[in-house]
Specification:
Elements (H helix, E strand, L loop, with lengths): L21 H24 L14 H7 L4 H21 L2 H6 L12 H8 L13
Length: about 130
């Protein structure tokens, strides 16, 4: 299924430019994660395979404008990390994915990948997440 990336603000078309602040940057990324989860859930319901690619210009946009040590850059990086962990937790809970309940309880960042590997036979989605 091809998804029109223009519908996800700042994840594809507005690569660099004036940063809009960490709160907005994290919300744009969260919206992108939710759109990706929607596509993956649809494919899972239809017993289809999918390759989903999500791009964000953050934190590059902030780093170019503010420098690498600015608090807004740190906030963006931390927010992206938290949202990516949420993404992985939802993929580890097929029931949550299919229900659209994407705000699963958070755990510490350590062990999330291992926990989801162990749950694979217990209803996790067969997925891999690659971040660059």
């Amino acid at each position: 299924t091809l998804f029109e990336t223009a519908k996800i603000e700042e994840t594809a078309f507005d690569t660099l430019g004036v940063p809009k602040g960490s709160v907005d940057a994290i919300q744009y990324y969260r919206d992108g994660i939710n759109a990706a989860l929607d596509l993956i859930a649809k494919a899972e319901r239809n017993d289809e395979k999918t390759f989903t690619y999500l791009y964000t210009a953050h934190p590059d946009k902030h780093m170019h404008a503010l420098g690498v040590e600015h608090i807004e850059v740190r906030n963006v990086v931390n927010g992206i990390e938290m949202e990516t962990e949420r993404f992985w937790r939802v993929l580890g809970d097929r029931e949550a994915l299919l229900s659209g309940k994407y705000d699963v309880d958070s755990s510490s960042s350590g062990g999330v990948e291992q926990e989801n590997r162990l749950k694979k036979e217990e209803g996790a989605v067969d997925a891999a997440v690659v971040l660059t």
